[in-house]
Amino acid sequence: METTFPCPKCRSILRTQYLSPGELAQCKACGDLVPVPETSIAPDPDSNAPGSSESGSAGGPPGAVPPPLPQFLAGDGAKWTTSHEFRIGPLISQTLRESFLQFHRYAPLAAIAVLPSILGLILGIAGNEGLATFFIDGLGQWLSNVFNALSSAAIISATYRRLQGKPVSLGSAFADGMSHWLSYFFLLILVGLVVFFASLILLLPGIYAILTLAVAGPALVLEDYGVTESMQRSSELVSGYRWKLLGFYTALWFLGVLFFIIFAVLVFSEEATFSLMETFFVILFTVVAQILANVSATVVYKELRAAHGDFDQTELISVFE
Asked: What's the pTM value of the predicted model, to 2 decimals?
């Protein structure tokens, strides 16, 4: 539901659909951070015109008091702004830094997506090659699609908490993944169908669909949207930033291809003919790819929210970066 309220500083009218009461919205006119009230506040017809820089009490119905700024933002008339530039370089740097420096945190969650292959590897080492093949190439391929949804939701939850500076535990991340895995599974199916049918038309519509739905997963997990609502939320967040997103994912794709080439040369050389060893390294590569995919989506989601001025109070640290 849309909440409408005046900016206490310049009296411009702010509107938001996605911020909760108590979170901070950015005034597009003066740049101030304004707490979202519990309910909409109508502007006072006798107040100064919207956009005026004159001081005075904020507009509202008779007797209404505008919500005060948090104490650490109030005082001395300080003006805090939330201008946040969405840039490719910092996105790549933050994604790679978070993915590899925190690999030990995300690897157990990413391993959930390849549990059938891991089980097949263990069976192969134990000498049961028939069951190993069944879990790696048979049923395991179908189960991996289900486990992938659980793994992705858990990594997104853990990444966002880390980006907010909050403590992260495997238990809490796994619990978040469990609570969203079914809806995330259906989201993966629907997004895959949209991208597939868009790609049937031409390559460009397929790329456009991928970029439009790039942060549907984080929107579903972190804002508790339904499947179609999270896709709509993703479309709104990426609006105006698709070209930069294309540059970001193109650069990330080239880095991934380079890593895969090095990986393939080292693992699938003539000397490396032991199939179980190859399976192990394929699992490792899949784990790395799973981490990169979900960490990058979460970083992009957070930065897009910041670029749109959608801050919550735990994200204000990015204002000073």
From this structure: 0.66
